[in-house]
Amino acid sequence: MIEEIITSNTRRKLLTLFLTNPKTRFYIRELEKKTGDYVNSIRKELTNLESIGLIIEEKVANLKYYSVNEKCIIYPELKSMILKTSPSEALIKEAAESIKQKLKGLCSIILFGSLAKNNLNFNDIDLLIISKNLNKEWRKRDAIILEIEKIGLSHGITLHIELISKEEFEFSVSQGAPLLLELSLANKMIYDDGFFKNQMAIFKENMLKWKAKKVNNVWEVPELAVKV
Hints:
Structural class: alpha+beta
Largest sheet: 4 strands, mixed
Number of domains: 2
CATH class of the largest domain: Alpha Beta
Number of strands: 10
Radius of gyration: 20 Å
Number of helices: 10
CATH topology of the largest domain: Beta Polymerase, domain 2
Helix content: 40-55%
Distance between the termini: 40 Å
CATH architecture of the largest domain: 2-Layer Sandwich
CATH superfamily of the largest domain: Beta Polymerase, domain 2
């Protein structure tokens, strides 16, 4: 539906990015990297969106930053439309296929966050990716993440990717990482070779040992002497 209403692919990507990140400012090269579109196409759409008061331009030093105008009269309706018409299932399927092609040592693809909790009023989709033989160079990991996140924008929704190695996940299991505490409450396995399932079983045993519990939306882990 959104493709029929907003026919420009670049405009659709920009609206998704701005409307699901209303407190964030972006500069041109950042928008180019996140959308995968040409600078001239991005500038043209930004000019159109500025002309109707939806986008604000701000100059800081030698850089121009762009952000969404939450006071714009059409902001609530546009944001609602972007969120309601996002085809999450098709997006997750396409992202999973892309991940499988890019990561030959793939162990798991896990959905977490609001959508995993069956909250349909979600702003984005969170995916945890666990892989063997993952490059330790963060720039190369970021390049993979950006390529996958572009798929989300083409569907009209923001993807947030956590990409970690098998060893890093095992370390998180042993240390009680905050993300795993939330994963213990809600997650959906999009793909798993058995690694995630086995590790979460170990983690839940650790939670019992640590006496971990969530009180007033705060995790208390007495045996680790932390609050998350």
